[in-house]
Every structure is written in structure tokens, then in C-alpha cells.
Amino acid sequence: MNLKIYVAGIMSGCSFKEVKDRFYPVVNRLTEMGFLVLHPLLGKEKHYRDDTILKPTFDRPSPFTTNNAITRRDHWMVHQCDIIWMSLLGAEEKSLGCAMEIAWAYDNNKHIITLMEKDNCHKHAFITGCSDIILDNVEDGLKYLNEFSVLWKKD
Question: For the chain, how many structural domains are there in total?
Fold first, then answer.
């Protein structure tokens, strides 16, 4: 059985290229480990230039990138997954989108892995209380998932 994992993290204020460069190495590693990976960038590559700065609200002509399309699709992806990988590493501002994804996951009994530094701006009782495990770097998160996933893999 392949577990599904939703990879999410800070996007607002970043260029599309910055977000891709942060997401895709993790997506690729998790795929290699045998996970089925969903993430907010799926199917959006052709709708953004690499220099596009992502904002918390969108006014785009594409039906794929409207506020409703983004919110409903990300909500659906959280519900489809067994595990949520939430990287808040390096956040300079609080992300309402990330907080929503954690809340949706928590409310649906998903296993939530949160990555953030000890002094991260997201350090709040609701974020830490909803997270099953909090780690401060990507490598420890991947190591944890590799060990955790052994319990679910079939021969």
C-alpha cells in the first residue's frame, strides 16, 4: 500500500521559481521513497512564469488559479492524503493558507509533520497542538518518514 502525502508550505511572497525549488526536491525524494505525492503546484506550472510573485489572493483569468479553485483543490488534496508535510521553514510572515491546511488535516485525523524552527513566526498553540511531530529540518523529516513508512509497506 502506498501512502499518499500532501506536501505544502510557504508560498505567498515567493516567486514561483523559489517555491518550485523548495517543493520539488522534497516531492522527488518522497516519490522515490514510494509515496504518492500531491502538492499545491500540481498542474499550475503553465499558468505562472518563474518570476511571478505569489500572493495570498489571486485575480487571474485562468479558471485553474482563481481563489475558489485553489482553495477547493487544496482542501480536496488534504482530504485525499494520509500524511501532511507542512514546511514552515524560513517563514518571515504567518501563512493563513498553511494554517488552514493544518486545520483541515487535523480535523480529518491526518498525520501532520510540521517543519519549523524553534523561533518560527508560526509557533502558536494551534499549530504546535495540531502537529503530530515538529522537526526543524527537511532531512530529519525525510528520515522520519522513511522509518515511519516501513510500517505500511507490503512485500
Answer: 1
Whether residue 85 contacts residue 113, with contact meaning beta carbons closer than 8 Å, is answered with yes
The total of other beta-carbon atoms located within 10 Å of residue 119's CB is 6
In a domain, 86, yes or no: yes
DSSP-derived secondary structure for 80-141:
H-SEEEEE-TT-SS--HHHHHHHHHHHHTT-EEEEE--TT-TT--HHHHHH-SEEESSHHHH
CA angle 49, 53, 55 (to 5 degrees): 125
The CATH number of the domain holding residue 113 is: 3.40.50.450
pLDDT band at 108 (very low <50, low <70, confident <90, very high): very high
**Residue 154 maps to a domain:** no
Q: Residue 133 sits in which domain range?
A: 4-149
The x, y and z cell numbers of residue 96, run together, are: 493563513
Q: pTM for the whole thing?
A: 0.88
State the CB neighbour count (10 A cutoff) for residue 80.
12
Tell me the three cell numbers of residue 64.
485553474
- What is the gyration radius of the CA atoms in the chain, in angstroms? 15
- pLDDT at residue 58, rounded to an integer: 60
